[in-house]
Every structure is written in structure tokens, then in C-alpha cells.
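Try this one yourself first.
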């Protein structure tokens, strides 16, 4: 058994691992295992002794000669065309008119403010109706301004009544012109003189008396909520409607151009007959407008709580507070006292 325990390489003087080539391989292998890191970058995972691989640089292609680019020009906006001269002139004219309107409205507002201040402090209000020129020796007789005197809820009605008075005045003027044409043409040789003469009388009398008779009472009624003024307006306006129905018919020699005498004249002279028919239509439309306005004012009269008893009370208080009536009553009483004392003596 002693033969099996002997080292077979003991007697060999050469060690196979002592060879230099084998030792270098084993050393490199062990060193590679120590440097290996599986989480490192692929470039760092190479063995220490290996050289890193380098990617060859890509050379850019040679520049080809190109055609010279045109020089860049700055962007220029197209010039705005000026409007024609007549457009500029029209715009200037519109601006001038607007400026004049604004100045006129400003002056009107200033005048109204002054009037309101006078009313507030009990000052005198200068009359402005009828609008007469300053050089005229006659001065206006009334102060008329719907926007100042009339409450806002009644201003529209008052304006309509005032427009109705203006249209009625124009109707009387047109009736006079138609009667004058009838006189000149001689279409109605029997009554042409009477119609023309009475048309002048109607024009002179009806225009101012209609203003004083029914428009001014309506103005005062809406201004002061006066029952007495309402009653006066209703009485005279009923008479006014009846007269306009008479004027619309146009009896021969009645002083107006209506449907009756226009029908007789149109067969002789078409132009004069047409003018007379127009006058008749103006009277007829006026009657319809009068009835509508009368109903409107009567509605306001009822809503305001006016009545005949209030009108009587206002009349009595107005008469009693009138200085002329008071002076006359004082004179009568003094005369009565003197006569009584004389009789006693």
C-alpha cells in the first residue's frame, strides 16, 4: 500500500503551472472576472486588457455649388387709397350738421334749465308764443313749453292737440286759397263772392279763437289738473267739431269749400274742383282726429278725478281771488255804505 500513497509528481522537478504562458493566462482570467460588472454600460463591460471599439466618424458630403439666391426685399404694405373728394366733402358736411344740432340742443337745454330755475324761485317767465321776430313791435302773449309745463304722462296728448291746432290753421289757409281760386276762375258765379268773403272771416277769426278757445284750456287743464279748464275745453271743442262738420259739407255761399259745392264746380273747372275736394277732405279728416282727441282727453279727465263740482269750486275760488273782482266788490260795498249813511242823514 505504500506504493499508492506516493505522489507521482513528487519526483518530477517540473511544475506544469509554473510555466510563464500558463501563469499569464490564469492571471488574466482571474482579473477579468473581478472587473466584470453586468450592470455597467456595454462600453465599460469590456475586459480591461481589451481596446475599446471606436465608431468611425461619418464625413459630411462635399458641398455642391448652388445658384446664388436673389437678395431679400423688405415687405412693403400696399398704400391705402384716399376716398374721393366728394366723399370727404360729404362727411365734412355731415359733421358740420351734427355739430350745429348739438349746439342747438345744448342751447335749448340751457334755456329750459333757466326757465325751471325761474319757476323754482318764483321768477317771471318770459312769454314765447306766438314766436314773433325781435324787431316786431308786438310781443308774444303766452308762455308755451310742453316739456316744462306738462307732466310727462300727458305730454304726448298735449303735443297731439297742439299739432291738431296747427293742421286746423293750415286747413283754414287752404280753404281761403281754394275760395280765391274759385273767385278767380268764376266757376260758381252765384256764390263765389260770398264764399271768398266768408273764407277770409273764418281765417282771421277761427285761427286765434281756436287757440284761445280749446287748445289753451286743454293746455292749462293738463298742466294744473284743473276741472274748470277741462269743462271749458269740452264745451268749446264740441262746438268746434260741429262747425267742422258744417265746413266739410260745403254749402254754397257758406264760406268753405266742401263736398257739395266741390261737386258742382268740378264739372266746370277740374283744377278748382280738385282743390275744393282737398279742402273738404282736410275738414273730414280733422273731424275724425277731433273725436279721437276728445275721447283721449276725456279719459284723462276721468282718471284725474275731475268733476263738475270741482269745476264749480275752482270757478268760485278763482273769481273770489281775482283782484279786479275784489276791487269791484269793494267799490260796490263802499258805495252801498255811503248811500246808506246819506239816507240816514
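Now uncover the answer:
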Amino acid at each position: 500500500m505504500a506504493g499508492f500513497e506516493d505522489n507521482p509528481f513528487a519526483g518530477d522537478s517540473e511544475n506544469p503551472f509554473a510555466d510563464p504562458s500558463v501563469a499569464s493566462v490564469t492571471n488574466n482570467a482571474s482579473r477579468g472576472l473581478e472587473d466584470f460588472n453586468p450592470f455597467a454600460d456595454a462600453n465599460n463591460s469590456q475586459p480591461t486588457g481589451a481596446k475599446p471599439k471606436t465608431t468611425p466618424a461619418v464625413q459630411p458630403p462635399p458641398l455642391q455649388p448652388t445658384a446664388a439666391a436673389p437678395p431679400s426685399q423688405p415687405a412693403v404694405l400696399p398704400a391705402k387709397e384716399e376716398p374721393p373728394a366728394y366723399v370727404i366733402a360729404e362727411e365734412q358736411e355731415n359733421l358740420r350738421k351734427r355739430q350745429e344740432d348739438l349746439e342747438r340742443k345744448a342751447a335749448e337745454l340751457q334755456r329750459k334749465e333757466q326757465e325751471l330755475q325761474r319757476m323754482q324761485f318764483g321768477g317771471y317767465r318770459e312769454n314765447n308764443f306766438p314766436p314773433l321776430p325781435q324787431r316786431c313791435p308786438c310781443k308774444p302773449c303766452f308762455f308755451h313749453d310742453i316739456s316744462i309745463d306738462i307732466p310727462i304722462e300727458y305730454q304726448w296728448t298735449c303735443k297731439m292737440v297742439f299739432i291738431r291746432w296747427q293742421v286746423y290753421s293750415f286747413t283754414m289757409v287752404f280753404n281761403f286759397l281754394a275760395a280765391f281760386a274759385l273767385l278767380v276762375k268764376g266757376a260758381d258765379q252765384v256764390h263765389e263772392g260770398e264764399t271768398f268773403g266768408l273764407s277770409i272771416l273764418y281765417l282771421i277769426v277761427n285761427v286765434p279763437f281756436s287757440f284761445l278757445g280749446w287748445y289753451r284750456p286743454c293746455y292749462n287743464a293738463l298742466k294744473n289738473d284743473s276741472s274748470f279748464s277741462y269743462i271749458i275745453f269740452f264745451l268749446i271743442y264740441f262746438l268746434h267739431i260741429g262747425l267742422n262738420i258744417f265746413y266739410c259739407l260745403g254749402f254754397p255761399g257758406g264760406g268753405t269749400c266742401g263736398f257739395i259745392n266741390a261737386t258742382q264746380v268740378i264739372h266746370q273747372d277740374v283744377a278748382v274742383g280738385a282743390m275744393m275736394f282737398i279742402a273738404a277732405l282736410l275738414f273730414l279728416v280733422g273731424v275724425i282726429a277731433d273725436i279721437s282727441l276728445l275721447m283721449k282727453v276725456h279719459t284723462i279727465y276721468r282718471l284725474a278725478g275731475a268733476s263738475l263740482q270741482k269745476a264749480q269750486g275752482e270757478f268760485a275760488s278763482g273769481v273770489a281771488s281775482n283782484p279786479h273782482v275784489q276791487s269791484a266788490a269793494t267799490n260796490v260795498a263802499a258805495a252801498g255804505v255811503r248811500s246808506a249813511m246819506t239816507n240816514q242823514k
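Discussion: Residues 47 and 238 are 131 Å apart (CA to CA). Residues 44-50 have pLDDT under 50 and may be disordered.
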